[in-house]
Specification:
There is one protein chain. This protein has 2 domains: 281 residues, Type I PLP-dependent aspartate aminotransferase-like (Major domain) (Aspartate Aminotransferase, domain 2), CATH 3.40.640.10; 133 residues, Aspartate Aminotransferase, domain 1 (Alpha-Beta Complex), CATH 3.90.1150.10. The longest helix has 20 residues. Helix 7 links the parallel strand 4 and strand 5. It is α/β, with parallel strands linked by helices and 426 residues long. The strands form 2 sheets. It has a 7-stranded mixed β-sheet, sandwiched between helices. Strands 8-9-12-11-10 form a 5-stranded mixed β-sheet. The chain is built from 17 helices and 12 strands. 38% of the residues lie in helices and 13% in strands. It is globular. Helix 3 packs parallel to helix 12. The structure holds pyridoxal-5'-phosphate. Pyridoxal-5'-phosphate binds next to helix 4 and helix 5.
Length: 426
């Protein structure tokens, strides 16, 4: 058996394997359409009988090469790119849920996903139960219903920095005959590969560390290929019975381990169109080429900053799973022994106004609605990203009202600490 390339090599070389005479670098195929010699050639593509391109809403060679790299990084069977992380989580869920379906979801997730599932999907008839992910397995099992179709959680929650016990969630999902979907945005496959711990589907906001330079919004869905849809055929008729919009084709029969991604592309992307652009996929790929170099630097900088903050007398608390003594340290060591990510959550002694004043005094650390890129930045979720949540919902999402989310970049850590120091001194 050929030796599998390691993560670092996949970051640089994965996805695009040019044949003799082709461009060394993945080309930007900036074309909406593709030309065929005969009407019959194109008809076969529409029937999904042969592989090929006809319209970039469905598939594009640049996007496919980058998706293939992400699939390889996560150790999955197939992947697709989408226009944003929001679109990735939406498609991952509605590919197997419809009105009347039920979702079990960790409550400590990104605010945007919390709204998507808790408000918007509810309007479409998908029921969601948010659960405290730290509860014991027996208690979590009570959230399941006969209509449950998936379980969802984040490896590292944004912004609470909770670490999910992926094996526990995989056991729960599988004992109820449903797949586990993991949003692996913050850990990235450099630090954690959820499929190795039992996750069936992995999603990403590639906008964050994968792109890494804050240039392009994007999302990805990776399918492990491991979930046996046929064994739960009555739960997933969309995958296991003929699709009338594709001349009676049955995805599991025609595509086997690639059924999920093929359906999400051929049906959801065709109908809803949240597609990635070839140009942005190209930029994402440049980011991926250095992901394995940037993540360790994010992690070592963040660990230094987190321990400095913990020792600072103006700081009330620090949550960083990489810190010894952190509530999630043991889980972090199990699932992410090489490091978690660059995001540190902390609170200051004093009022909410003191926190805002501290942020306004920062010099090169900027206040932006972004996280997880090369530049250190800071945000107050209760006033910014999570503004629309009540205090109770904030607590449920693991977000203290005084939480400051510091996304530690890859600059020189001494300069980051100097900037924090002058701003804390006031
Ligand atoms: C940012 C983020 C999203 C949403 O991604 P966009 O690319 O902004 O749409 C989803 N999940 C997590 C964990 C995120 O951090």
């Amino acid at each position: 058996m050929e030796k599998k390339p390691s993560i670092g090599t996949l970051c640089v070389q994965g996805g695009w394997q040019p044949r003799s005479g082709q461009p060394r670098i993945v080309p930007i195929v900036q074309s909406t359409t593709f030309k065929y010699d005969t009407s019959e050639d194109m008809a076969r593509l529409f029937d999904l009988e042969t592989e090929g391109y006809f319209y970039s809403r469905l598939q594009n060679p640049t996007c496919d090469a980058v998706a293939a790299k992400i699939a390889a990084l996560e150790g999955g069977e197939a992947a697709m790119l989408l226009s944003s992380g929001q679109a990735a989580n939406l498609y991952a869920v509605i590919n197997i849920c419809e009105a009347g379906s039920h979702l079990v979801c960790s409550s400590t997730i990104y605010g945007g996903t919390f709204n998507l599932f808790g408000v918007t999907l509810r309007k479409f008839g998908v029921e969601v139960t948010f659960v405290n992910p730290d509860l014991p397995e027996e208690e979590l099992a009570r959230a399941f219903r006969p209509t449950t179709r998936a379980v969802f959680g984040e490896t590292l929650s944004n912004p609470g920095m909770n670490v999910l016990d992926i094996e526990k969630f995989a056991r729960l999902a599988h004992s109820h005959g449903v797949p586990l979907i993991i949003d692996n945005t913050f850990a990235t496959p450099v630090n954690c590969r959820p499929i190795e711990w039992g996750a069936d589907l992995v999603t990403h906001s590639t906008t964050k560390y994968m792109d890494g330079h804050a240039t392009s919004l994007g999302g990805a869905i990776v399918d492990s290929g491991n979930f046996d849809w046929e064994a739960q055929a009555d739960k997933y008729p969309g995958l296991t019975t003929p699709d009338a919009s594709y001349h009676g084709l049955t995805y599991t029969k025609a595509f086997g381990r690639r059924a999920f991604i093929t359906k999400a592309t051929a049906q959801l992307m065709r109908d809803m169109g949240a597609c990635q652009s070839p140009m942005n996929a190209f930029l994402l790929n440049l980011g991926l080429e250095t992901l394995h170099l940037r993540m360790p630097r994010h992690c070592s900088n963040a660990l230094r900053v987190a321990s400095w903050l913990r020792d600072n007398e103006s700081v009330a608390w620090v949550d960083y799973p990489g810190l010894e003594g952190d509530k999630y340290h043991d889980l972090a060591m199990k699932y992410m022994p090489g490091g978690t990510c660059g995001v540190v959550a902390f609170g200051l002694k004093g009022s909410r106004e003191d926190a805002i004043a501290f942020m306004d005094r920062l010099k090169f650390i900027s206040i932006v609605t972004h996280v997880a890129d090369a530049r250190t930045c800071v945000l107050h979720p209760a006033s910014h990203t999570h503004r629309q949540l009540s205090d109770e919902q904030l607590r449920e999402a693991g977000v203290a009202p005084d939480l400051i989310r510091l996304s530690v970049g890859i600059e020189d850590v001494r300069d980051i600490i100097d900037d924090l120091d002058q701003a804390l001194r006031g």
